[in-house]
């Protein structure tokens, strides 16, 4: 991926976040003017119950989102990676938008050097209950059964899962929901990279690491929230020949 690459994550688009959506669409317009490539690194949507939900008769908020993404994919290469909330996004959606599906974790060959890109939830290995849940919902035959259910049943299951997730997060220590340093080091080592970019934790920062005696960096993408929390927040990471920069709104 040569030239200027922008990476954003954790926008959580849905019917209940119109201000967040508006800020994100402004960002997409800016990306169309200034970026060479855009990667959306998971949790673009607050929940995803199957591509057919979007491609049949999407609700108004989703139709608007798809139009904005389609316009962006028409202006520059747009890559979609899956997160923990939209892991069921598939190739049908990407093809309908003119985008490309990115199987993350992935190593990006950029003008700033090789970069390991991931959503980030795979590194939260101290949260054993979540990792068990993650293994279950990423099982192919379980996904096939879920996607075969009527849309109403899928909506109900997704709503219950989100409610249980919110309740569980309130009772867990913050540290257990962050990435595990050993898991990060293992992933960097296996990928042959000294730089990691991820989202998921909603803790934007640049962390200096030491990996096998070498300097390394971990960049954490911000989440987007303009509707319920103050102050509003959002941002992205810009990659080019001058380096890697965390940009926050």
TrEMBL record:
Calcineurin-like phosphoesterase domain sequence ranges: 4-204
Predominant location: membrane
Record note on cofactor: Binds 2 Mn(2+) ions per subunit in a binuclear metal center.
Molecular-function GO term, any one: UDP-2,3-diacylglucosamine hydrolase activity
Pathway: Glycolipid biosynthesis; lipid IV(A) biosynthesis; lipid IV(A) from (3R)-3-hydroxytetradecanoyl-[acyl-carrier-protein] and UDP-N-acetyl-alpha-D-glucosamine: step 4/6
EC number annotated for this UniProt entry: 3.6.1.54
Pfam families (UniProt xref): Metallophos
Keyword Cell membrane annotated: yes
Mode of membrane association: Peripheral membrane protein
Keywords: Cell inner membrane, Cell membrane, Hydrolase, Lipid A biosynthesis, Lipid biosynthesis, Lipid metabolism, Manganese, Membrane, Metal-binding
Compartments (UniProt record): Cell inner membrane
Residues holding Mn(2+) 1: 10, 12, 43, 202
Coiled-coil portions: none
Cofactor section: Mn(2+)
GO cellular component: cytoplasm; extrinsic component of plasma membrane
Catalysed reactions, semicolon-separated: UDP-2-N,3-O-bis[(3R)-3-hydroxytetradecanoyl]-alpha-D-glucosamine + H2O = 2-N,3-O-bis[(3R)-3-hydroxytetradecanoyl]-alpha-D-glucosaminyl 1-phosphate + UMP + 2 H(+)
Gene3D superfamilies documented for this protein: 3.60.21.10
Positions bound to substrate: 84-85, 127, 165, 172, 200
HAMAP family assigned: LpxH (MF_00575)
NCBIfam families: lipid_A_lpxH, PRK05340.1
Role summary: Hydrolyzes the pyrophosphate bond of UDP-2,3-diacylglucosamine to yield 2,3-diacylglucosamine 1-phosphate (lipid X) and UMP by catalyzing the attack of water at the alpha-P atom. Involved in the biosynthesis of lipid A, a phosphorylated glycolipid that anchors the lipopolysaccharide to the outer membrane of the cell.
Stated name of the protein: UDP-2,3-diacylglucosamine hydrolase
Gene: lpxH
């Amino acid at each position: 991926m040569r030239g200027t690459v922008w990476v954003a994550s954790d926008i959580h688009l849905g019917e209940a976040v119109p201000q967040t959506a508006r800020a994100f669409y402004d960002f997409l317009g800016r990306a169309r003017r200034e970026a060479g490539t855009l990667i959306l690194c998971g949790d673009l949507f607050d929940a995803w119950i199957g591509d057919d939900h979007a491609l049949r008769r999407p609700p108004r908020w989703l139709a608007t989102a798809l139009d904005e993404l389609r316009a962006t994919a028409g202006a520059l290469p747009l890559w979609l990676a899956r997160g923990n909330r939209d892991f069921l996004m598939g190739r049908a959606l990407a093809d309908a938008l003119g985008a490309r599906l990115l199987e993350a974790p992935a190593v990006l060959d950029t003008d700033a050097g090789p970069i390991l890109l991931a959503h980030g939830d795979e590194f939260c290995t101290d949260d054993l209950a979540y990792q068990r849940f993650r293994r279950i919902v990423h099982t192919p035959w379980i996904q096939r059964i879920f996607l075969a259910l009527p849309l109403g049943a899928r909506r109900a299951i997704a709503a219950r899962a989100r409610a249980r997730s919110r309740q569980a997060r309130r009772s867990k220590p913050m540290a257990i929901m962050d990435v595990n340093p050993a898991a990060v080091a293992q992933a960097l080592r296996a990928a042959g990279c000294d730089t990691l970019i991820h989202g998921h934790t909603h803790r934007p920062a640049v962390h200096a690491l030491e990996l096998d005696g070498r300097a390394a960096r971990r960049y954490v993408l911000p989440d987007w929230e303009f509707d319920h929390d103050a102050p509003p927040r959002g941002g992205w990471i810009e990659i080019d020949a001058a380096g890697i920069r965390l940009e926050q709104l």
